[in-house]
C-alpha cells in the first residue's frame, strides 16, 4: 500500500451491467473514493460450475478501476459457497446448537471445518490469487468476510470428529480431561475422547468446561482456516492481508490477526452510541501495533435489512466519525456500500448511491468525509498515534467464558463498552490491548471482566507492577481456572496470592441491598462479587450495607515499586459511575498519567506525535458541541493561525486540529 489515507466502499460489479459500472466508476471519482473492496460474495461468479473458473470479469474491473485511480482490496469469496456445493449435501452445511442444518440461500451456511469446503475454498482462492495477485490495482486482500457473524459453533459430524482430535492434542489422555473438567459430577465421566459430546441440546446446562472449551475449539479452527487462506494468497501476491471482523462475533480476534498483515473491522453503531464505535479504533490499533488499521465497513447513513433498520446519522456525524478513525490510527475508512442492493436481504441498507443511481441521504456527508481526508492527510501521514499511558486488557476468550456463565444474561460486549466509556469521558487517552500484548509504555493497567487470567498474563502484569505500574483488577476477574472450573487453593487462584487480597467469599451482589463506599462516594454494588477481609492497611472501599457489611470490596497492595488494586464488585448507577471515575482518577494521578485532558463529555481528544511536536484532534462526537482547555499556545492547522492557551470551544460535530511545539 502506498502512503495515503484511503476512502473507500464495498462494491459489487457482478450485480450490475456495463452501463451502470461505467457510471459507478465516474461517480466514485467525483466523490473521491480511492479504493473499493469486492469479491467476498462472488463464488458463483468466479466458479459458476465445479472446476470451471472464470476470473476475467474481476481482472478487467480491477484494471479499469486502477486506470481511474481507484485501487482494490480483493476478497476471497468463501462466505457464500455456490449452490453446486450445497445442493444435495447437508453433511457440508453448518449445524446450530439445536441440531438444525442450514440450507442454501444466505451466507455462512457451510461448515468451514468440512474437508470438502476447505478443499474447494483453497481452489477458488488459489485461482483468484493467481489471476489477480500481481495486478498493480490490488493493494490488499481480505479473507472471507465477518467470520462467525451469523453463526457460532457448528455441531456437525465433521466438527465432532475434529473436536475429539482437538481434545486429544490438548489433554493427551482421557484421564487428564476427566480430572481437569471434574467429570465425576452428574456421572459425566468419559472413557474415551470419542465419548465426549458437543454442547448441543440437553435437559439443563452442560458442564462449564465442555461449553467453554468447545467455543475455544471453534475459535481456533476458524483462525486456522484464515491462516490456510493467507498462505495460499502469499504464493501469488505480495499485497498485505486482513480480515473484516468485530468484537461481536464468535472469534478470538487476537488469534485471528496473529498471522495476518493488518487489522480491520466493521461497526454500525448509531451516533448516540459513539463509544461503541470508538472502542473498536482503540482496540484494533493494537492487534497489529504500529500498522494502520482499517474501518472496512460503516454505513454512510444507516444499517438495515429486510427485518430491521438503524437510525440514520444526523448530518455532520459521518465526518467526525471518519476524523476520529483517522486520528486514532486508521489508514482506511470504507462504507458498506457503494450502490444500494437491488435484490437480496439487505436491500434497505444505507449506501452512497441508490439502486437507481441517485445520491442517497448520506451522500453529502460522504463528500464531507472526502474533504476531511484531503485536509488532514498531510497531518496524519506526518504523525503517529501517541502512546497511551493507560491500557485496558480486552479478551475474546473471556467472551467465551461469559457466554458459558452469563449470570443474568450479561453481555461481554456491553460490559466492556460501558466500562470503556467511563474512561473515555474522563479525557484519558487509552489503549485497549489483547491479552498477549506488551505492557511497555503504560503506567496504569486495567483488567475487567476476564474470568480466567493465564499464568503468563499474571507474570507479565506482576512484573509491570514491580517496575512501578498500577494494576487495577476486576470486577469479575480471575475467579475461574483455564478449564472454567473454580479454584481450589484461593478464590482467585494465583492472582489472589500476589494481590495481597484475602477473599472471604464470592456471590451475586445484585439486589442484595449492598452499598459500597470509597473515595467519598457511596454506591450500590452488583454483579458476581468478591468480598475481601477488612484489613486497615489495604482496604480502599468498604461495604456499608448488605450481606457483607463491614467487609471490603476494594483493596490496594504494594508490590515492588507499584501496586495492585482489586475491584471486587461493580459499583452501579450514576453514583457507581462517579465512584469508578474517582478510583481511576486517584490511581492515574498517583501514577502520573499525564496524557489526559479536561474535554467535555461527548467530545474527544485524539493525540498524535510528530517530530518535535504533538497534535490534538479535538472532535465533537455527540452533536452537542463541547470544549477543552489548551495547556499552552498552539497552532490551528486548519487556519494556520495561533490559538491561545485556555478554553477551546467546538460547535456541533466540529473537529479542530491543534499543533503544540515541544521545544
From TrEMBL:
<feature type="binding site">
    <location>
        <position position="107"/>
    </location>
    <ligand>
        <name>substrate</name>
    </ligand>
</feature>
<dbReference type="InterPro" id="IPR013739">
    <property type="entry name" value="Beta_galactosidase_C"/>
</dbReference>
<dbReference type="GO" id="GO:0004565">
    <property type="term" value="F:beta-galactosidase activity"/>
</dbReference>
<feature type="binding site">
    <location>
        <position position="159"/>
    </location>
    <ligand>
        <name>Zn(2+)</name>
    </ligand>
</feature>
<keyword id="KW-0326">Glycosidase</keyword>
<dbReference type="GO" id="GO:0006012">
    <property type="term" value="P:galactose metabolic process"/>
</dbReference>
<protein>
    <recommendedName>
        <fullName>Beta-galactosidase</fullName>
        <ecNumber>3.2.1.23</ecNumber>
    </recommendedName>
</protein>
<comment type="similarity">
    <text>Belongs to the glycosyl hydrolase 42 family.</text>
</comment>
<feature type="active site" description="Nucleophile">
    <location>
        <position position="297"/>
    </location>
</feature>
<feature type="binding site">
    <location>
        <position position="156"/>
    </location>
    <ligand>
        <name>Zn(2+)</name>
    </ligand>
</feature>
<dbReference type="InterPro" id="IPR013780">
    <property type="entry name" value="Glyco_hydro_b"/>
</dbReference>
<dbReference type="InterPro" id="IPR013529">
    <property type="entry name" value="Glyco_hydro_42_N"/>
</dbReference>
<feature type="binding site">
    <location>
        <position position="154"/>
    </location>
    <ligand>
        <name>Zn(2+)</name>
    </ligand>
</feature>
<dbReference type="GO" id="GO:0046872">
    <property type="term" value="F:metal ion binding"/>
</dbReference>
<keyword id="KW-0378">Hydrolase</keyword>
<dbReference type="GO" id="GO:0009341">
    <property type="term" value="C:beta-galactosidase complex"/>
</dbReference>
<dbReference type="InterPro" id="IPR013738">
    <property type="entry name" value="Beta_galactosidase_Trimer"/>
</dbReference>
<dbReference type="Pfam" id="PF08532">
    <property type="entry name" value="Glyco_hydro_42M"/>
</dbReference>
<feature type="active site" description="Proton donor">
    <location>
        <position position="146"/>
    </location>
</feature>
<feature type="domain" description="Glycoside hydrolase family 42 N-terminal">
    <location>
        <begin position="11"/>
        <end position="372"/>
    </location>
</feature>
<feature type="domain" description="Beta-galactosidase C-terminal">
    <location>
        <begin position="602"/>
        <end position="659"/>
    </location>
</feature>
<feature type="binding site">
    <location>
        <position position="145"/>
    </location>
    <ligand>
        <name>substrate</name>
    </ligand>
</feature>
<feature type="binding site">
    <location>
        <position position="111"/>
    </location>
    <ligand>
        <name>Zn(2+)</name>
    </ligand>
</feature>
<keyword id="KW-0862">Zinc</keyword>
<keyword id="KW-0479">Metal-binding</keyword>
<dbReference type="InterPro" id="IPR017853">
    <property type="entry name" value="GH"/>
</dbReference>
<dbReference type="InterPro" id="IPR003476">
    <property type="entry name" value="Glyco_hydro_42"/>
</dbReference>
<feature type="domain" description="Beta-galactosidase trimerisation">
    <location>
        <begin position="388"/>
        <end position="585"/>
    </location>
</feature>
<dbReference type="InterPro" id="IPR029062">
    <property type="entry name" value="Class_I_gatase-like"/>
</dbReference>
<dbReference type="Pfam" id="PF08533">
    <property type="entry name" value="Glyco_hydro_42C"/>
</dbReference>
<dbReference type="Pfam" id="PF02449">
    <property type="entry name" value="Glyco_hydro_42"/>
</dbReference>
Amino acid at each position: 500500500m502506498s502512503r495515503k489515507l484511503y476512502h473507500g466502499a464495498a462494491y459489487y460489479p457482478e450485480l450490475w451491467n456495463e452501463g451502470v459500472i461505467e457510471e459507478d466508476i465516474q461517480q466514485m471519482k467525483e466523490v473521491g473514493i480511492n479504493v473499493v473492496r469486492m469479491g467476498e460474495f462472488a463464488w458463483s461468479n468466479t466458479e459458476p460450475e465445479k472446476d470451471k473458473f472464470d476470473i476475467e470479469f474481476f481482472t478487467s474491473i480491477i484494471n479499469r478501476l486502477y486506470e481511474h485511480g481507484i485501487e482494490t482490496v480483493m476478497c476471497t469469496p468463501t462466505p457464500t459457497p455456490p449452490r453446486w456445493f450445497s445442493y444435495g449435501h447437508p453433511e457440508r452445511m453448518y449445524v446450530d446448537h439445536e441440531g438444525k442444518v442450514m440450507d442454501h440461500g444466505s451466507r455462512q451456511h457451510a461448515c468451514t471445518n468440512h474437508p470438502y469446503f476447505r478443499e474447494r475454498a483453497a481452489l477458488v482462492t488459489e485461482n483468484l490469487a493467481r489471476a489477480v495477485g500481481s495486478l498493480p490495482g490490488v493493494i490488499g486482500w481480505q479473507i472471507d468476510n465477518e467470520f462467525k457473524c451469523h453463526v457460532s459453533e457448528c455441531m456437525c459430524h465433521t466438527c465432532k470428529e475434529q473436536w475429539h482430535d482437538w481434545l486429544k492434542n490438548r489433554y493427551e489422555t482421557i484421564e487428564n480431561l476427566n480430572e481437569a473438567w471434574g467429570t465425576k459430577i452428574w456421572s459425566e465421566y468419559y472413557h474415551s475422547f470419542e465419548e465426549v459430546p458437543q454442547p448441543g441440546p440437553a435437559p439443563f446446562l452442560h458442564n462449564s468446561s465442555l461449553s467453554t472449551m468447545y467455543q475455544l475449539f471453534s475459535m481456533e479452527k476458524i483462525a486456522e482456516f484464515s491462516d490456510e487462506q493467507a498462505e495460499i494468497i502469499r504464493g501469488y501476491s505480495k499485497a498485505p492481508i486482513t480480515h473484516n471482523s468485530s468484537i461481536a462475533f464468535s472469534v478470538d480476534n487476537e488469534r485471528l490477526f496473529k498471522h495476518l498483515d493488518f487489522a480491520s473491522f466493521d461497526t454500525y453503531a448509531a451516533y448516540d452510541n459513539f463509544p461503541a464505535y470508538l472502542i473498536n479504533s482503540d482496540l484494533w490499533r493494537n492487534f497489529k501495533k504500529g500498522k494502520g488499521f482499517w474501518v472496512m465497513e460503516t454505513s454512510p447513513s444507516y444499517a438495515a435489512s429486510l427485518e430491521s433498520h438503524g437510525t440514520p446519522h444526523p448530518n455532520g456525524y459521518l465526518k467526525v466519525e471518519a476524523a476520529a478513525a483517522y486520528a486514532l490510527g486508521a489508514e482506511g475508512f470504507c462504507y458498506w456500500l457503494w450502490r444500494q442492493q437491488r435484490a437480496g436481504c439487505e436491500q434497505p441498507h444505507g449506501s452512497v448511491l441508490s439502486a437507481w443511481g441517485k445520491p442517497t441521504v448520506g451522500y453529502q456527508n460522504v463528500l464531507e468525509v472526502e474533504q476531511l481526508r484531503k485536509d488532514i492527510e498531510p497531518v496524519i501521514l506526518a504523525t503517529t498515534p501517541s502512546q497511551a499511558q493507560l491500557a485496558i486488557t480486552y479478551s475474546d476468550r473471556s467472551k467465551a467464558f461469559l457466554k458459558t456463565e452469563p449470570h443474568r444474561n450479561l453481555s461481554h460486549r456491553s460490559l466492556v463498552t460501558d466500562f470503556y466509556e467511563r474512561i473515555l469521558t474522563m479525557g484519558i487517552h487509552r489503549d485497549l490491548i489483547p491479552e498477549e500484548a506488551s505492557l511497555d509504555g503504560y503506567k496504569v493497567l486495567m483488567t475487567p471482566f476476564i474470568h480466567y487470567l493465564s499464568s503468563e498474563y499474571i507474570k507479565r502484569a506482576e512484573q509491570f507492577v514491580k517496575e512501578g505500574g498500577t494494576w487495577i483488577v476486576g470486577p469479575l476477574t480471575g475467579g475461574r481456572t483455564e478449564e472454567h472450573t473454580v479454584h481450589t487453593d484461593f478464590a482467585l487462584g494465583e492472582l489472589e496470592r500476589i494481590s495481597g487480597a484475602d477473599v472471604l467469599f464470592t456471590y451475586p451482589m445484585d439486589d442484595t441491598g449492598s452499598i459500597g463506599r470509597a473515595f467519598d462516594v457511596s454506591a450500590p454494588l452488583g454483579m458476581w462479587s468478591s468480598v475481601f477481609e477488612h484489613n486497615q492497611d489495604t482496604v480502599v472501599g468498604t461495604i456499608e450495607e448488605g450481606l457483607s457489611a463491614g467487609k471490603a470490596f476494594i483493596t490496594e497492595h504494594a508490590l515492588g515499586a507499584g501496586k495492585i488494586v482489586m475491584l471486587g464488585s461493580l459499583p452501579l448507577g450514576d453514583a457507581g459511575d462517579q465512584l469508578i471515575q474517582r478510583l481511576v482518577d486517584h490511581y492515574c494521578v498517583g501514577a502520573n498519567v499525564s496524557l489526559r485532558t479536561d474535554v467535555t463529555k461527548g467530545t474527544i481528544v485524539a493525540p498524535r506525535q510528530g517530530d518535535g511536536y504533538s497534535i490534538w484532534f479535538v472532535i465533537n462526537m455527540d452533536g452537542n458541541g463541547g470544549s477543552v482547555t489548551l495547556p499552552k499556545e498552539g497552532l490551528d492547522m486548519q487556519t494556520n493561525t495561533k490559538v491561545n492557551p485556555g478554553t477551546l470551544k467546538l460547535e456541533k460535530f466540529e473537529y479542530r486540529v491543534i499543533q503544540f511545539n515541544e521545544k
